[in-house]
Amino acid sequence: MFSDLVDTVNMTETIVAIGTRKGLWIARSTDRQDWTLEGPHFLMSEVASVAVDTREGRSTLLAGVKSWHWGPTVQASTDGGRTWTESAERAIAFPSDTDTALERVWQLTPDPNDSEVVWAGVEPHALFKSTDRGEHYELVRGLWDHPHRPTWEPGFGGGAVHTILPEPGHPESVLVAMSTGGVYRSGDGGDSWAPSNPGIRAGFNPENEYPEFGQCVHKVARGQGEGELFAQNHNGVYRSHDNGATWDSIADGLPTDFGFTILAHPRRPGVVWVVPVVDGGERIPPDAQLQVQRSDDAGSTWRQQATGLPDHSYTCVLRDAASLDSADPVGVYLGTRNGDVFASADEGESFQRIATQLPDVLAVRAAQLA
Amino acid sequence: MPSAPVRIILPGMLRDLVGGVAEIEVESPTESQTVAELLDRAFAEHRILEGKVRDERGQIRRHVKVFVNGEDATRGEGIGAPVPAGARVHIINAVSGG
Hints:
heterodimer; A: 370 residues; mainly beta; Methylamine Dehydrogenase, Chain H; 2 helices; globular; B: 98 residues; alpha+beta; Ubiquitin-like (UB roll); 5-stranded mixed beta sheet; two-stranded antiparallel sheet; 20% helix
């Protein structure tokens, strides 16, 4: 009895929010070995983005939900995903002068510098900012009015700002990435933006393989080294040591330079994971072995981690369908297009399947709740 | 003088959002109003329905249908279609998806 009480008091819950094409599921565990699965929430609605806001001890979840019939919205939960509400007024709406309608919310990012701020990346290509913890959002005009915007093309999944990386400790510094369009940075909190893709190849561009912008970046992750960023592009894996001002290829040693997602260790500089996908129209794991590739030296060398992941696998992991938690050792989580979710409690050395037979997984976010 | 009110019948998926309300009765200030004007009046008290039925440009969502006295208004004049006093208006989710 007493030991049970102690366990309860010390209990930290790990949650894995799983956004799919037809709803949201939540896996929970107190030891990252035994998992329960709750859901679906928002059955038959697409959940392309999820954020877990643990700032100031919160257990808030935000989800970008799109009903095929009733359109996109942002749902919020303040009890760790058990109950959900949405604002009666549209949380995210394009101003009338833009003559544009919101298609989908692809990214929700709590700002590390301001616990009231949440950023939203949406389709069509636009960035929104909330200063009330994600209840209402305003269009970031500096990016919307950028002269390059008419040239940003939609990728296969649609044209969207899908990555938002505020720089911890530097509230004025924000990076976004989009497919296609590339990486853009702001040094004034979002008022103005400039492309930042030097060194990133756009092999699909027959006239200029190193354009100023227009790259098809799939995901960018912030590492823990000084100015350290990692990017998985459409054909290309890159690192930056100067906060995205320049990029160097780190694809040597990988079975393929294609993939959708990339993850960086929350505490250890230079530790990064990718999930390689064969290019050339196949879009399957190399040798049909679902795997992650891990580097401990900022991409200079790579090694495969696949224990517990299936072979004869013809699925893939999309750009936001992977996540890390913040525990020690770090947990690694992958969601696949055929509805499986795999969890590793040992930084990728071994995985177990914690969900299966879900709809195709679009977004995975893991976190520890107090 | 107000004319006979218009009755808007909601689909089940939207009723859940407004406390189980199945029908909204909207006063008709004239003999006829447009679909847009009707929805403006109906949604003034049920704000959450506004974002579900129309996008922020005021357009009825692609997979939503509005029938006025049995006629699909979204196939014709859309939000500008006339809604006569006393009409029965159905908002329905289209048969689509997979």
